[in-house]
């Protein structure tokens, strides 16, 4: 039976509102699962996923910026003075990364080699690769520390040989030579006196192993069987752990290879990765939420404990022998040379390290490392990883080149590897993984709100309709009640009781 015409509008509004509200509630329940499934489908290491091409050939323009600490008073340092340094740079290189030997395994892992190539960018640099800079003579000063416990006469012989080659505690070389290597007969001389002291041949340079080389064979989980394990390292060069350090905890290969992380992060998540360059695993912690070019992000930074010594942070005892807190001795994985890594300008380190060298000005904005990661996918949007290389130098008896140098950890250079998603890659990422899910999320709440509003409007209209209907309908008299009789002489204000009596008498 059709509804009366007046009731059709409220009924239509009510049904439409109910449908909208139900649709919104369905989206509210179903949408998170749909988004999660799409994220899992598109971030796992699979040739059919959106993120695979980003993982295989990193499309993000990465740059390596190197800053050198030029030694301003080399002669005075040999006489025992405090070092004075002046920062030079940046010398900027465009970094290209690509993976080869990609092999999928039946246990849900994939192996690969990642190569890096660097190209100097003069337009982004404050100087040229041909610039000369005075820095510690790494071979001489490093070898001096390594030979400290040798017999005195042997050290005197080696010192004489070094003098014959014109070697001193400091050297004046170009940026290109310090970075990418130079031929030095000193290597053969030192190895002739102490076989195996410097176990390599060819050019010597701080980044000679970076260019056109790989970071080792990584085997990581693809996420095919467990999305929580995606990108987590299974082995590196076939190893579950390294043997550089003094404890199992410090030798563990934890986290990812440092490019992507498992999705669905929370502020309690951490970013852990294994760095072949630092020979150890590192863990970054959540600092704050933010937005990078419209994409919501979590910022992760290095905790103060990252390079703390074993006294300040006992779990780091395995990285010792330690010096002041804030620097890490990496000699065990750097041919036993007294090399230390830290944050630039000894940021977050013991103030004694900063006070020992004139010209250092640590601050968070310039020297703190960070990664901005999209928490839903685990893909970095913007990052800047900053590390400093320093050399421990001092007077070594029998090695005249060391003069009267006071013990000091002297910075050589610091570098930042920085990159940010941009262009078409950013647009595709934003559209598929941010914009569409956000629009659908807004739609669900709009539908619920609109549905509730329409149902309230239907109720209001129905109430008004019924009230209006009552006001328009005439009152019908009670058939059981007779109206009182009045004559022409009946007073207008006649007592009702009398009227009733008269009616009774007549009856």
Descriptive overview:
With 507 residues, this protein is an alpha+beta fold. It is 32% helix and 26% strand. It has 12 helices and 15 strands. Strands 1, 2, 3, 6, 7, 8, 9, 10, 11, 12, 13, 14 and 15 form a 13-stranded antiparallel beta sheet that branches. Strand 13 and strand 14 form a beta hairpin. Helix 1 runs antiparallel to helix 11 and helix 5 runs antiparallel to helix 7. The longest helix has 50 residues. It is elongated, with a radius of gyration of 39 Å. The two termini are 51 Å apart. The model has no long low-confidence stretch (mean pLDDT 86).
In a nutshell, what does this entry contain?
With 507 residues, this protein is an alpha+beta fold.
Number of strands: 15
Overall pLDDT metric:
86
Main β sheet profile? 13 strands, antiparallel
Query: What letter string, H or E per element, gives the SSE order?
Result: HHEHEEEHHEHHEEHEEEEEHHEEEHH
Shape: elongated
Radius of gyration: 39 Å
**Low-confidence region ranges:** none
**Content-based structural category:** alpha+beta
Strand portion, in percent? Answer: 25-35%
Q: Could you tell me how far the N terminus lies from the C terminus, measured between alpha carbons in angstroms?
A: 51 Å
Helix content: 25-40%
Individual helix count: 12
